[in-house]
Amino acid sequence: MPRLLHIDASAVPTGSVSREVAATFVGAWSGPVTHRDLGARPVPHLTGAGIAARFSPGHEWTAEQATAAFLQDALIGELLAAEAYLFAVPMYNFGAPSTFKAWLDQILVPGRVSGMRPEDSAVAGRPATLVSVRGGGYGPGTPKEGWDFAEPYLRKILTEVLGLELQVITAELTLADTTPGMEGLREAAAVSRAAAHEAARERAQRLTPQPA
Ligand SMILES: Cc1cc2nc3c(=O)[nH]c(=O)nc-3n(C[C@H](O)[C@H](O)[C@H](O)COP(=O)(O)O)c2cc1C
Fold it and tell me: Which residue has the CA at smallest separation from atom 3 of ligand 1?
């Protein structure tokens, strides 16, 4: 049974659409799951000590560098130990949450995790699912077309840096239920959310053999 690394990045513990869609995926997953909750327990930002530790042998590390290297080792070990990935990432201020970026900065160590080409990545070819959730709509012709710097960035990193076999599941317009002026978009929001749950269930079932 393949091990899934499931990462949540919503800062909101309940009522989070990305967490709920990810939960649907995990509910349909047959296999062990490692869960990292970046909303509840953000990882520290990459520091100068963490970068320096990558370029010097362990016996030369300061205490600060050793601590930083230990954290990178733990996060990279968790990444490498999984055979599949689920990233549940909302849009914050037109990009990915800083918690998810901090995690990427910790694990993206050239020569160890990433390489010159996608196929050189230590996790190349493994299946990944990105649950991409946002309050507004960014499709062609919408007022905010071109403002989504979350999903395009994450697609690039996950496919062209980490070399993952990626499916993106999107739920948008999640603010329609609560934001004045978006009432006319509530039905579209409900359709988008229902489709995301269905896609998540199907993807998990396709990736793992189901118990009889
Ligand atoms: C701090 C913050 C910033 C946000 N920025 C945006 C944004 O720039 N564009 C957008 O469409 N929605 C934005 N939203 C709305 C979220 O993307 C939306 O509420 C989404 O459902 C959050 O994911 P979650 O439901 O999994 O918590 C923002 C929400 C928060 C809390």
Answer: 92
Cross-strand pairs, 189 = none
Residue 16 has a pLDDT of 98
Using CA of residue 117, residue 80, residue 20, residue 89, what is the dihedral sign?
Answer: negative
Cα distances from 104 to residues 101, 113, 140, 160, in angstroms, run 5, 11, 29, 14
pLDDT of residue 183: 96
Burial of 84 (0-12, 13-18, 19+ CB in 10 A): buried
Nearest to 82 by CA among 149, 13, 33: 33
Residue 211 has pLDDT above 80, yes or no: no
Q: Residues 31-63: pLDDT tens digits?
A: 999 999 999 999 999 999 999 999 999 999 999
- 147: Cβ below 6 Å to ligand 1? no
Report how far residue 204's alpha carbon sits from residue 199's, in angstroms, rounded to the nearest whole number.
9
Residue 109 sits in which domain range? 4-207
Question: Alpha carbon of 161 to those of 113, 129, 150, 164: distances in Å?
Answer: 9, 15, 16, 8
DSSP designation for 43: P
Question: Residue 146 maps to which CATH number?
Answer: 3.40.50.360
What's the mean per-residue pLDDT of the chain? Answer: 97
Could you tell me if the CB of 97 is within 6 A of ligand 1?
no
Number of domains forming the structure of the chain: 1
Whole-number pLDDT of residue 209: 77
